[in-house]
Automatic annotation (TrEMBL):
<keyword id="KW-0472">Membrane</keyword>
<feature type="transmembrane region" description="Helical">
    <location>
        <begin position="117"/>
        <end position="135"/>
    </location>
</feature>
<comment type="similarity">
    <text>Belongs to the nucleobase:cation symporter-2 (NCS2) (TC 2.A.40) family.</text>
</comment>
<feature type="transmembrane region" description="Helical">
    <location>
        <begin position="354"/>
        <end position="377"/>
    </location>
</feature>
<dbReference type="Pfam" id="PF00860">
    <property type="entry name" value="Xan_ur_permease"/>
</dbReference>
<feature type="transmembrane region" description="Helical">
    <location>
        <begin position="197"/>
        <end position="213"/>
    </location>
</feature>
<feature type="region of interest" description="Disordered">
    <location>
        <begin position="1"/>
        <end position="22"/>
    </location>
</feature>
<keyword id="KW-1133">Transmembrane helix</keyword>
<feature type="transmembrane region" description="Helical">
    <location>
        <begin position="413"/>
        <end position="432"/>
    </location>
</feature>
<feature type="transmembrane region" description="Helical">
    <location>
        <begin position="174"/>
        <end position="190"/>
    </location>
</feature>
<feature type="transmembrane region" description="Helical">
    <location>
        <begin position="275"/>
        <end position="292"/>
    </location>
</feature>
<dbReference type="InterPro" id="IPR006043">
    <property type="entry name" value="NCS2"/>
</dbReference>
<keyword id="KW-0813">Transport</keyword>
<feature type="transmembrane region" description="Helical">
    <location>
        <begin position="383"/>
        <end position="404"/>
    </location>
</feature>
<keyword id="KW-0812">Transmembrane</keyword>
<feature type="transmembrane region" description="Helical">
    <location>
        <begin position="438"/>
        <end position="457"/>
    </location>
</feature>
<feature type="transmembrane region" description="Helical">
    <location>
        <begin position="64"/>
        <end position="80"/>
    </location>
</feature>
Length: 468
């Protein structure tokens, strides 16, 4: 990558059409603009499900989250000088903390506490990024050696398996299976541009198939998150919780009612953050996971592109923190670099940041156009199940690639024990209830176990090896 490269200076890769087999489109390169727009659209679709769903889970406005994710992504690309292709979508690491903040009280004031706590966490994350940048990447190598970074990348991918298994796949298992198989075939049989947008084509096919099935086979009976809530006696109940759960009911696979009622243009609802110390303390542990997550993502992109991106880790962490501060300052959701979009890059081998600028602009337009946002959000869960099982799996395998290329010694128990435990905790996802109001789970818990477990055991073995 040329020194002094600016976001507006992408070089055309070859003839701008289909790169020869084995070649990649570098971050400072692009295909023709129509093809770049297609890849950008694929990035939007890849991030949209989680970026839209996680704010809903946290009680925040999903349209605002989508719009601000575009703003945060542009800020990120500017801060990293266009050298780290990545999309900033909604972070799942804050979900547990937000649940704890809202426990027992859920009001407009609580919304302010949630976004205020997220804003402070974002500021802490940005400060950590500055420390990493100015103290040098050796800090990262000491804290995140290849065995740890590979594990973090792996648990980020595999730790999202429960989303596929529990949320998406059961909504329509056959559509999920057909969509997954279709993406398999397109990726393998079409080596050119068609193969590179296999995920987008799979989503289109799955959406169309679901629409056809609604009109030929009739409604499907399955569970939709947050709908048809029932208690132990089968009575309708609110809100969703341990004794009030979503239950199966007949429904169309494609529901366009939200599209019909949505406006063509409009600003999403916003609110100012409010600051409460107890709320802030509940979400601060997410910063640990985000540092590891950003580090893992940057290293994963570096592995895929063959570029040394380690000197930019501090900038990336800082940029993510800035993105979270900006989004939460208007009532939006926390951000993080997105595994889903890294999965798209792994599948397409197109790392052009031009596509990410396109994706960011599309996301901003989606946020300003509720009708288009509602259309993408209407993508059936079964279709998302067929696509995300591929994307999450490819992310997990990038972790193994880091291990192999760095020749990590798995005969050493210091490497195998904490890494294996952390991955299982993430995949579970296992929950550690520290108190009634605070718990760690899934990716956050697995990351902490990997980091602390590895370094603790390493120090013990070093001390034991010293002569008395």
């Amino acid at each position: 990558m040329a020194e002094g490269w600016k976001p507006a200076g992408w070089k055309l890769h070859g003839d701008g059409r289909t790169p020869p087999p084995g070649e990649v489109v570098a971050p400072d390169e692009r295909l023709t603009w129509p093809r770049t727009a297609g890849i950008g659209a694929q990035h939007v679709v890849a991030m949209f499900g989680a970026t839209f769903v996680f704010p809903l889970v946290m009680g925040l406005d999903p349209n605002l989250a989508v719009m601000m994710s575009g703003v945060a992504t542009i800020l990120f690309l500017l801060i990293v000088q266009g050298k780290v292709p990545s999309y900033l979508g909604t972070s799942a690491s804050f979900v547990g903390g937000v649940f704890a903040i809202r426990a027992g009280v859920d009001s407009a004031q609580t919304d302010g506490w949630v976004t205020g706590a997220i804003l402070v966490a974002g500021a802490v994350l940005a400060l950590c990024g500055l420390l990493i940048h100015f103290l040098g990447q050796r800090i990262i190598h000491q804290v995140f050696p290849p065995v740890v970074t590979g594990a973090v990348v792996m648990l980020i991918g595999f730790g999202l398996a429960f989303v596929v298994a529990d949320t998406y796949w059961p909504q329509d298992q056959w559509v999920a299976l057909i969509t997954m198989t279709f993406v398999f075939l397109v990726m393998v049989l079409f080596r050119g541009f068609i193969g590179r947008i296999a995920v987008l084509l799979g989503l289109v096919l799955g959406f169309a198939l679901s629409w056809v099935l609604d009109r030929t086979a009739g409604p499907i009976t399955s569970v939709l998150p947050g709908q048809n809530l029932r208690g132990a006696a089968g009575q309708a109940c609110q809100p969703e919780g341990t004794y009030c759960v979503a239950t199966a009911f007949p429904h169309d696979r494609v529901n366009l009612s939200a599209v019909e009622s949505a406006d063509w243009f409009g600003l999403p609802s916003m609110h100012a953050p409010d600051f409460k110390l107890s709320a802030i303390l509940l979400v601060l542990p997410a910063v640990i996971a985000l540092i590891a997550e950003n580090t893992g993502h940057v290293k994963a992109v570096g592995e895929m592109t063959g570029a040394d991106l380690d000197p930019l880790i501090g900038r990336a962490v800082f940029a993510d923190g800035v993105g979270t501060v900006v989004t939460s300052s208007v009532g939006g959701a926390p951000t993080t670099t997105y595994a889903e979009n890294i999965g798209v890059m792994a599948a397409t081998r197109i790392y052009s940041t031009a596509a990410y600028y396109v994706a960011a602009l599309i996301a901003i337009l989606f946020g300003l156009c509720p009708k288009f946002g509602a259309l993408v959000a209407a993508t059936p869960g079964g279709v998302l199940g067929g696509v995300t099982v591929i994307l999450y799996g490819m992310i997990g395998l990038l972790g193994a690639k880091i291990w192999i290329e760095n020749r990590v010694d798995f005969a050493d128990a210091v490497n195998t024990v904490p890494i294996g435990a952390g991955i299982i905790l993430a995949i579970g996802p296992v929950v550690l209830e520290i108190s009634d109001d605070f718990k760690l789970e899934g990716i956050a818990l697995g990351t902490i176990v990997v980091l602390t477990g590895y370094h603790l055991l390493r120090q013990i073995t070093v001390r034991m090896a010293r002569p008395a």
